[in-house]
Amino acid sequence: MVAGALEFCDVCAASTGKMGRVGFAALRSFRAIFLSSSQSGSGRSISRLAAAAVVSACLGVGLGGCSRLRPKPTTQYVYVTAKQTFLRDRVAAVSNRTATVENGDKLQVLEHGRRFVKVQTAKGEQGWIDEKVVATQEIFDQFDGLKQAHQSDPAVASAVVRDEVYLHARPGRDTDRFYRLAEGEKLKLLKRATLPKPVPPGMKLAAPATAAVVGKDGKAAGAAPELPAPPAMEDWWLVRDSKGDTGWLYSRMMDVDAPDAITRYAEGQRIVGAYVLTTVNDPEAEQADKDIPVYVTVLSPYKAGLTYDFDQVRVFTWNVKKHRYETGFRDRNIEGYLPVEMKMAADPYGKSPTATVAAPTFSYRVLSDEAGPVIPDPTTGAVVPGKMVLKTYRLEGNLVRRVIEPGTTAPGEAHPEQVAEKKKATAKTRRHK
Description:
By secondary structure, this protein is an alpha+beta fold. Helix content is 20%, strand content 36%. It has 4 domains: 2-69, no CATH class; 77-135, SH3 type barrels (Roll), CATH 2.30.30.40; 146-198 and 232-257, SH3 type barrels; 258-432, no CATH class.
């Protein structure tokens, strides 16, 4: 029996390498002792016990040798999502702080507990941290992917964070979040998404709207089928902060970066973007900087879920004689889309000498009247318009002129408010007067 056990050990030794063979060589040295004891009847029980001991020892040594062939577990990391927190020496009501970590710090995982993780910082400090304030490698990779995919995207506008807030991996309040932005952080806006606003627990949706059906005689003929009330919407922006970190931010947590000198003229609308077209020197201006910017602004109603970015373009020129801003151009009732492009360019269609001289020029796109309805993607919230019309203007002195080929008719445009209905309403108002 002992011989069979030793043969088993030999087989194991052949498959475990040098370290295993060294251990088995020591065990085989006891072969003669165990065989001699098995010759007598009184030694049979001892022989059986010895065989069991040999097999147990072989398994222990063999497994020790085999463990060298197993791949080492990959190193795991987590990332701090809290603004600032501490590592502790134990998971207990009373513990000592071992290190301070901040948002974005990379920590190596040493051990997993029930609700806590033992980690090590880049400085070698160790301690336990609540798993609620760390993000997994998978979440970090999502944000890193956003950064890499959009690092070259041009900004369509600038904004400032209102309060401390998190960036999200996708539009939506319940999506993964990671980077925490400080109040006043400068942002570059890249693109917009609009999604249905989540309904708070316990709150019911608005009742479906009904409309009366009017017959040919002008009398009510019953009620039309109930139509579901449109859901409340909320806007999200893909943004890039001053460090290059990229993610989605709820639009109500930031303000577009526009100077106070022109925000007072917003007339109840929201400034979506403000862009410097050129500057005008005014030696008698009250400002310390005598080079006064001329702004192109795009505005929209204070309403989320719009299928366009702006419905008005307004140029603020500077009156050198009166030392104040004035409206030099306005384009209303349009369905416009960012970005707004700024450059110096000549007028290719102009015949005057000034047309060949490069002047401040801006362009933007509006929805064509030949395009179909724009419907935001229900999953991603992306707003993708159909056919659009490019509109280009030049600033010549204080006059804004459209750059268009002479003799051509400007393409038709879509309008948020129907022009025909507005004309009818105006005519009706005049009749009543």
